[in-house]
């Protein structure tokens, strides 16, 4: 199957005035390998353009574009709070996390999540939707748009599962959710599953609480070059953590210490989604210079029950 046949245009379905967002769809690593020869030159051109922008200087780096969510022309800007250092010593900001729209202030990952929730999952005011987050800008933006929205955090203050602490935050462990079977139309989990040692149990729980035909939308660190997931750390049988690679900690809205990353997922995550029960699972790559979706081929994972 050629690249042109893998294109999906995510547009209006439940998305209001959102324009189409072009994405490449893959269901297996073999699918991706088959298309890699044709994709290679385009991906290299994208990366070269991003690196050139990064070398243009300035803190933040700025360039003009159009934000699909705002529906407005804007100036995208990217600071250097997180950056890569290349072999030649040059730096490049982490576009996926730090490039923000001048109006909504959302980065490519969050704007992509919003776009997919509406256009691919059909999110609307009456949807029963669960997000594995509650203290984030994404939850705050979706709350007035979806009256059935539920969010949670993984609390470590003694709050019981399904309960709320003094700050009004709900506690949930994704490996043992408190919700009844078939509670939600949509589940969104963004940059969470890499921190869950038993992520397979988490996938099974999400499948359980989704209604038939429901959607799971997810992002996490993903290595498109790896057929198998890279395990960075694991729990020891007798307790404690065994680090297989140098510890990597990600930002945590509830802790200054950050949260340990156990996995960089590979293509086998699609198989794990199917083993959890999902009837369809795919990786969608999206990118748009004008739309401010930079960071190489941005991955989004979509599975249906």
Automatic annotation (TrEMBL):
GO BP: any one term: methylation
Organism: Pseudogemmobacter lacusdianii
Annotated Gene3D superfamilies: Vaccinia Virus protein VP39
Keyword entries, A-Z: Methyltransferase, Transferase
Methyltransferase type domain span: 168-217
Taxon lineage: Bacteria, Pseudomonadati, Pseudomonadota, Alphaproteobacteria, Rhodobacterales
SUPFAM superfamilies per UniProt: S-adenosyl-L-methionine-dependent methyltransferases
Transmembrane annotation, as ranges: none
Pfam families: Methyltransf_11 (PF08241)
Name of the protein this chain belongs to: Class I SAM-dependent methyltransferase
Example of a GO MF term: methyltransferase activity
């Amino acid at each position: 199957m050629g690249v042109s046949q893998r294109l999906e245009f995510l547009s209006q379905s439940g998305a209001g005035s959102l324009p189409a967002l072009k994405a490449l769809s893959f269901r297996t690593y073999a699918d991706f390998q088959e298309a890699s020869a044709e994709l290679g030159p385009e991906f290299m051109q994208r990366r070269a353009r991003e690196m050139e922008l990064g070398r243009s200087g300035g803190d933040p780096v700025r360039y003009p574009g159009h934000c699909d969510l705002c529906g407005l022309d804007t100036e995208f800007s990217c600071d250097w709070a997180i950056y890569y250092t290349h072999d030649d010593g040059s730096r490049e900001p982490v576009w996926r996390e730090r490039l923000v729209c001048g109006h909504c202030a959302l980065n490519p990952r969050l704007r992509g999540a919003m776009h997919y929730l509406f256009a691919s999952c059909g999110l609307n005011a009456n949807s029963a939707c669960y997000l594995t987050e509650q203290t984030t800008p994404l939850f705050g933006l979706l709350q007035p748009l979806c009256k059935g929205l539920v969010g949670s955090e993984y609390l470590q203050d003694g709050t019981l599962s399904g309960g709320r602490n003094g700050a009004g935050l709900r506690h949930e462990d994704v490996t043992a959710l408190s919700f009844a079977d078939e509670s939600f139309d949509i589940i969104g989990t963004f940059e969470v599953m890499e921190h869950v040692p038993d992520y397979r149990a988490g996938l099974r729980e999400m499948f359980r609480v989704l209604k038939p035909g429901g959607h799971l939308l997810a992002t996490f660190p993903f290595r498109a070059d790896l057929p198998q997931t890279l395990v960075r750390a694991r729990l020891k049988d007798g307790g404690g953590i065994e680090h297989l690679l140098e510890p990597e900690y990600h930002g945590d809205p509830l802790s200054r210490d950050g949260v340990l990353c156990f996995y960089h997922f590979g293509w086998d995550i699609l198989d794990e989604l199917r083993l959890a029960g999902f009837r369809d699972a795919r990786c969608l790559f999206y990118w748009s210079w004008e739309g401010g979706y930079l960071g190489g081929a941005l991955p989004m994972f979509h599975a249906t029950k």
